[in-house]
Amino acid sequence: MTPKLRRFLDEVRPSTPCLVVDLDVVEANYRALATALDGVEIFYAIKANPAPEILTRLVALGSSFDAASVPEIEQVLAAGAGPARISYGSTIKKEADIARAFELGVRLFAFDSEAELSKIARAAPGARVFCRILTNGEGADWPLSRKFGCTPKMAKDLLARAATLDVVPWGVSFHVGSQQKNPKAWDSALAEAASLFRELEAIGVELGMVNLGGGFPTPYRSDVPEIGAYAHEIMEAVRRHFGNRLPFLIAEPGRGLVGNAGVIQTEVVLIAEKGDADGRRWVYLDIGKFGGLAETMDEAIQYPIHSHRKGAPVPVILAGPTCDSADVLYERAPYTLPADLAIGDRLEIEATGAYTTTYSTVGFNGFEPLRSYYI
Fold first, then answer.
1. Annotated catalytic, 323?
2. Which of 57, 87, 147, 191 is the most buried (most CB within 10 A)?
């Protein structure tokens, strides 16, 4: 909680639930990552938080952008970025959307299947393409395996196939999992990428780029390594596997740039006991899974939650306000709140700048989308 956030919440007293983001923290995170990963071009993952205020700040800082859809591309262009600073990084795109992105000037596209490659070749002739390979996501709180990526063997065949089409086979990408706590997690993926570079070069296909993906964490309830530790391990792995022929490197941070810049303020709607053997009190908030806290699914992302009360901490179960039994935030994780917590109190859920407003429903149970403020 920065002083600026605290002052805004205390002076403005916005209606809850709401997200407030300190843009200066976003800028500081960007500068720290860009400095640590010297020589790596930063492509902000827009999906983490596409607020115009964030995009405009990052454009001014020189960031490039990883887009998952045409609307995200249009948002970045409206914020002042040129199309050369945009990668269409989703591997699942309608052909019409590929054509629209190409029309808007985007020339860098991801794929992980022959069907997707064929769509790009038809709709975006001459574009650069990169193939995403599978990783296991070990060490990440929010793994991103299986749905995206193909085996390295298939990637070799697809990139060789790309060389016969009206596109430019440009590189390899991977993602080691969101909220990755192990700085060494990039090593094996970089080894696979380097092997692909060599194997393809042997058959006359020269690649030029490696996309390191995201995965850079934000601190939640436990500490995470400093960004310098990640940069050191990544660059050491790049040099180890590629030697003196270093590829053009890009990275796609999302959570690591905006996560710790935001705080959600929420109101306690109900405190109830169930009369069961568990004995814990249920604390119901005016925000839940459907209001922006979707990443509490399986209790994967555990946000710090604070109260201004000073009573002794007692164990609680935390849930959202909707009439859906899945709207329970934390039941297994050991959360405590003050014994003198009262209905109507406000709580702060910290490190919520990423993947909250965009996960909020349009109006499930009639609850409006999560309001947000950027200061």
1. yes
2. 87
